[in-house]
Amino acid sequence: MSDIKPHPKNASGDYYVEYGCCTACDVPFSEAPGLFEYDDRNHCYVHRQPTTGGETNQMLSAIACAELQCIRYRGSDPGLFDRLAAMGEVAICDNPPAGFKPAIRNHVAFKATTSGITLRELVALFTAFLEKQTTDSFRYKIKRPRIRDDSASLQFATRLAIPGVRHKGTYDTIMFRALDASNTKGDFCAVHEDECSPGQSFVLQRWLTNSEQFDNVMWFTKDEWNANGTTGHREPC
Ligand code: SF4
Q1: Ligand 1 pocket member 68 (CB < 6 A)
Q2: Do residue 74 and residue 111 come from a single domain?
């Protein structure tokens, strides 16, 4: 039994927000609109439990993208445990099954629908996608990319502009690689750091699946990536 104190206003159900750990990161309101609210002290809580597959995906995205591990799972659905393991979110479970450990899918392979895209152009497309997410209260701060012959890395962090809240997210790194023509997994892959940035899987998935320039998006754990012949997964979790 967890001794973590839930926010008293959480809707009853499997997902809840821990009381007393809120930096008002605003993530739940972009990732899962309608499922969270702020109380009168600017501390978020679960206002409504997800009732559809789409809302569950939104809740998982909020869990992955939140700055702190303050959105928690107290349910016992084996399928949900598998998805949380693929996100690396083992520590947010109150009642984990025996042997529960992370198997984070942090490698994504994809094909380009037009030939000749360079790594520099790929990074520019991803940067443009991040810049498009800018709102009055949210933006990504993006560092100058490092481009090499067969790889490119990009660092970015979230910045919030909410009255009364000073918030700076830490930098995450995405590494892009051009794959050898003999690699059946795709034309490119993108990898984010293992357990510190599971939210970046959702950011990459949104970019890749909403763009007409890419298809055949497949996700892998590190072990799956290094094994020959694995087909991967359509979703990051
Ligand atoms: S996810 Fe966490 S830090 Fe972000 S608003 Fe909710 S309780 Fe606050």
Answers
A1: yes
A2: no
Query: How far lies 117's CA from each of 48, 60, 111, 136, 186, in Å?
Result: 43, 32, 10, 32, 13
Q: Report the residue among 16, 19, 26, 27 best suited for mutation to probe ligand 1: largest number of ligand atoms under 8 A from its CB.
A: 27
Final residue belonging to a domain, choices 87, 120, 150: 87
Residue at a domain's end among 87, 114, 141: 87
Q: What is the pLDDT of residues 165-209, one digit of tens each?
A: 666 677 889 999 999 988 889 999 999 875 557 788 999 999 999
Q: Is residue 98 in some structural domain?
A: no
Q: What is the average pLDDT value for the chain, to the nearest integer?
A: 90
Confidence label for 8 from pLDDT (cuts 50, 70 and 90): very high
Q: Is 3 within the bounds of a domain?
A: no
Contact 108, 201 (CB under 8 A): yes
Helices (H), the chain: 27-31, 53-65, 78-87, 119-132, 199-209, 222-226
**How far apart are the C-alpha atoms of 208 and 215, rounded to whole Å?**
7
Q: Is residue 199 part of a domain?
A: yes
What is the residue type of 129?
F
| Residues 119 and 179 placed together within one structural domain of the fold | yes
Give the structural domain span for 202. Answer: 105-226
59-63, 86-90, 160-164, 227-231: which range is least confident on average? Answer: 160-164
The DSSP symbol for 180 reads P
- Cα–Cα distance for residue pair 30/64, rounded to 1 Å: 12
Separation of 121 CA from ligand 1 center, angstroms? 35
Indicate the SS3 state at residue 220: strand
